[in-house]
Design a protein that fits this description.
Blueprint (H helix, E strand, L loop, with lengths): L3 E3 L4 H12 L6 E5 L12 H19 L3 E4 L5 H5 L25
Parallel strand pairs: 1-2, 2-3
């Protein structure tokens, strides 16, 4: 069994990683999911994006001896927001990313 730690590089996930290290809990892989607003713009604020790339990932690699796996979807927020629904009663309407709501009026 692989032990995968998901990390956003916020205070909570960083604390989780270092707590796992302190108590010698197994970590086989560290994964960061990079979310994009559009094709060229990350969803993270620029300062956090820079901190992740320049400081956090190298520190994790040094402290844990593991590479951080960065996952990034081919889709981004703008693409998904503008994708029409292709099935059901709302076919051809907008999806209202991230989920479709059906508003009921009583």
């Amino acid at each position: 069994m692989k032990h995968i730690a998901m990390c956003s590089f916020g205070k909570d996930s960083m604390a989780m990683l270092y707590t796992m290290k302190k108590y010698k809990l197994p970590i086989d892989m560290i994964v960061y999911v990079r979310i994009m607003f559009d094709k060229d713009t990350p969803a993270e604020i620029p300062e956090h994006e820079k901190w992740i790339e320049k400081y956090a990932i190298p520190k994790i690699k040094k402290d844990f001896g593991l590479n951080v796996i960065v996952l990034e979807s081919e889709n981004n927020y703008v693409d998904l927001f503008n994708t029409p629904i292709t099935r059901g009663s709302r076919k051809r309407s907008k999806s209202w990313f991230p989920i479709t709501f059906r508003f009921l009026v009583s």
